[in-house]
Structures are given as structure tokens and as C-alpha cells.
Design a protein that fits this description.
single chain; alpha/beta
Length: about 100
Amino acid sequence: MKGTIEGKRAREYENKIKNIKQTKIFDSLILKNIKSGKAVKVCEFCCGPGNNIELLKNKVGEIWGIDASREMLKICEEKFHNSKKVRLKLASVTDTKLKSTY
């Protein structure tokens, strides 16, 4: 799909974004504003290598990671294959076929 990060570039991207200052600021903002609990469900579009999934997996009941990159989802699958809370889907953000509960 046009614009997706695939192959070796996906692994390079994961390593690049882990420790940048903006990521740490964003992480603290998310944690300060997210409701915790088993009833909370989160869907992250363009989840990339799953850094936000990692951040939230122990705070919410279920989390969906959506990405159009097979390689990014492969990285996520490697990280979260044992988690019953994490679900991953290969899809464009404009065509996920997920139903909203709002």
C-alpha cells in the first residue's frame, strides 16, 4: 500500500522512535488522560510497531492495533502474541470494517 513502511525500514523506524523526547511527552499525555479498567477498549490507528499498545496494554481491557503495513503488524505480533487483550488488524484507516460503539 502506498505510504506504508515495509521491510527493513519498519525495524529501523521502530528503533528510531523509541527514545525521542516527543514520544516520552506523548506517552505521559496519554497516561494522564486515559481511563483505566477492564471495560475500556482502545483502537489505535496506524499503530506502527506497537509502542502505544505496549504503553496501554496493562491499563485497558482490550486494545486493537490497526496498520496498513504488514511488517509493522509483524513487529506487533512478535511483541504481543501472548496477550489476550491485544488484537491486530491489517487495514487502511479508511477501511477497517470495525463497528463503533459510540
